[in-house]
Amino acid sequence: QQQVKQSPQSLIVQKGGISIINCAYENTAFDYFPWYQQFPGKGPALLIAIRPDVSEKKEGRFTISFNKSAKQFSLHIMDSQPGDSATYFCAASTFPSTDSWGKFQFGAGTQVVVTP
Amino acid sequence: NAGVTQTPKFRILKIGQSMTLQCTQDMNHNYMYWYRQDPGMGLKLIYYSVGAGITDKGEVPNGYNVSRSTTEDFPLRLELAAPSQTSVYFCASSPSRGRDGEAFFGQGTRLTVV
């Protein structure tokens, strides 16, 4: 079964608008939550990541919000641009260390289309 | 800086044929992974490796095999290809202690089994 559930499956947003993608996870052992961005014909690339010791992380126009008690996290894309049109995947894993490693569980993906 | 390189980019196989998907990374990463990506399903882990000589099964290993004789290379072998193996395959690597645990992905191999 899907250990990380992602919604919506797709979304269309106007240029300048806010895109919001939500993810929920089951395994309380997860302690690393990255978001990956994938353009057509390319491999996923890390966009932004968060660990549970903070509730929010911002990098430029991209913000992750994290709710540990609800086991949910979300990606907000502010001032969305046509160049942000891509598929976004949330993921979860245990953080790599000398005794464990990050085996990633991915959400199903959200296709974001930003219209001019 | 090449990063993670996968070959081939595209391949069509007939049912029952075998092939090896090649993956090499030049970042001296210990961890390497093979994922398959199917529409609407995200990425599913096939096999992973935490270092040369060490491999283990992921979520969907049936029909595949891997080896890790060097740090750089992590080939994926498909034996007796089946239509259910039609997918896009991604190889990835990550350091054991990364900046953010980041995984670096190759550009993918699109495989069609007919």
Q: Helix/strand/pairing class of chain B, anyone?
A: mainly beta
Overall mean confidence score, pLDDT of chain A = 91
Count all strands of chain B and give the number: 11
- The helix fraction of chain A, in percent, is under 10%
- Write the element-wise H/E pattern of chain A from the N-terminal end onward: EEEEEEEEEEE
User: What is the quaternary state of this protein?
Assistant: heterodimer
Overview of this structure, please?
The complex is a heterodimer of chains A (116) and B (114). Chain A is mostly beta strands. Chain A has no helices and 11 strands. Chain A has strands spanning 4-7, 10-14, 19-25, 33-38, 45-50, 56-59, 62-67, 72-77, 86-92, 105-106, 110-115. In chain A, the strands form 2 sheets. In chain A, strands 2, 4, 5, 9, 10 and 11 form a 6-stranded mixed β-sheet that branches. Chain A has a 5-stranded antiparallel β-sheet with strand order 1-3-8-7-6, with no helix packed on it. Chain A is globular, with a radius of gyration of 14 Å. Chain B is mainly beta and 114 residues long. Chain B has strands spanning 4-7, 10-13, 19-25, 31-37, 43-51, 54-57, 64-66, 76-78, 87-94, 104-105, 109-113. In chain B, the strands form 2 sheets. In chain B, strands 2, 4, 5, 6, 9, 10 and 11 form a 7-stranded mixed β-sheet that branches. A 4-stranded antiparallel β-sheet of chain B has the order 1-3-8-7, with no helix packed on it. In chain B, a hairpin with a 5-residue loop joins strand 4 (31-37) and strand 5. The termini of chain B are far apart. Classes of the chains: A mainly beta (116), B mainly beta (114). The A-B interface holds A 2, 4, 6, 9, 32, 34, 36, 41-46, 49, 89, 93, 95-98, 101-109 and B 4, 31, 33, 35, 40-45, 48, 50, 58, 90, 92, 94-98, 100-108.
